[in-house]
Amino acid sequence: MRILGTGGALPSNEVGNGAFSALADTSDEWIVSRTGIRSRRISSGDTALSLARSASERAIASAGIRREDISLVVCASVTGETLTPSLACLLQRDLGLREDNILAFDINAACTGFIYALGLAREFLRPGGYALLVGSEVLSRVTDFTDRSTCVLFGDGAGAVAAEASDGEFHFVSGARGDGESLVIGSIPPAPNPFSAARASPPPPLIRMNGQEVFRFAVESMTKSILCVTERAGLAPGDIHHFVCHQANRRIIESAARRLGAPPERFFMNIERRGNTSAASVPLALDELNASGRLLRGERVVLSGFGGGLTYGAVYMIW
Ligand code: UT7
User: Given the CA of residue 251, which atom of ligand 1 is nearest to it?
Assistant: First the structure.
């Protein structure tokens, strides 16, 4: 599989760290030193669908493909507004994509969602077919702005790629470690059910995270999965031109880079201005790297993600 074009979309509202001191007991100094984040975009009306639509339009334009040739739409998100229809189906409608011979579905693998989508697309795409793969999140819908340990971390945004089937080298590795404690976005409140015993009200659907647990999992799984895909390509981490990793914490990426023995400057970072945008993080970072002109055709690229589930995955591809 080969990525032909990328696109990104962000809410216009940029919120600096200072704004969080008024909401929770925190400071710019703590946030920058522990995470690398200085600001993030927060929706003031954008939805996961509206951001996904803008990012997709840009990805399709940058790929130079016809909308009617798209046969696969996969959206990775945990913050769509409806369980059904899926974001992918609503995108099919909004972008005017074809109705027959198309697969359109969402996947929930939290921050690893876009990496899972790439792996799935490789299985489903047939020669001559095109895929639209999107990560889109409005995490501000599920952020507890009174919880200083999480509210400072997240941002909203979307990233998308248009891809085609190709014989080019592509390696994918994925994993899951079911864990209902370390990183949870709460349940959907059930409707009253006359056939079920009364239950306590579920907690509101807000993000709860054990940061240190997830940090350890992140460094371990990122290192392991990046090593795995580079070894499958017969290479060492030092042979990779660009690493585009989930942007959750600057220290996680630096730590993985050290363990891998790869030059830190090859790890693209935009966390300073984007925060953690979950499933949008990797495609948004990829789009920004692509737009910078530093990503050249023929270069070796590794994408890597980890997150809720817990889940992780990595992809090796030639750009
Ligand atoms: O995309 C999903 C994946 N998510 C992640 O990858 C997140 C992974 N985890 C992390 O990035 C880090 O664990 C955090 C940034 C969430 C936290 O950093 P940390 O260095 O692990 O801090 P900590 O949880 O050990 O907390 C250290 C101290 C605590 O105070 P005490 O107990 O030492 O007095 C916290 O209460 O920092 C306190 N603290 C804060 N202080 C000021 C926690 N959050 C804040 C805050 N401002 N926002």
Answer: 11
Most informative mutation of 139, 149, 247 for ligand 1 (most atoms within 8 A of CB): 149
290 noted as active-site residue = no
Which helix (DSSP H) or strand (DSSP E) does residue 105 occupy?
strand 103-107
pLDDT in tens, 224-260: 999 999 999 999 999 999 999 999 999 999 999 999 9
The single residue listed with the structure tokens 């690493």 is 243
Q: Is residue 198 part of a domain?
A: no
User: Ligand 1: which of 34, 145, 146, 216 to mutate, most ligand atoms within 8 Å of CB?
Assistant: 34
DSSP 74-102: EEE-S--S-SSS-HHHHHHHHTT--SSS-
Q: CB atoms < 10 A from the CB of 105, how many? A: 14
Cis check for the bond before 97: say yes or no (omega within 30 of 0). Answer: no
* pTM of the model as a whole: 0.96
* CA separation, residue 44 to residues 12, 48, 90, 151, 314 (Å): 8, 12, 21, 16, 32
Q: Are both 140 and 232 inside the same structural domain?
A: no
Residue-range definition of the domain harbouring residue 297: 172-178+206-318
70-90 tens-digit pLDDT: 999 999 999 999 999 999 999
Q: Specify whether the CB–CB gap between 268 and 281 falls below 8 A.
A: no
pLDDT in tens, 192-212: 778 877 666 777 789 999 999
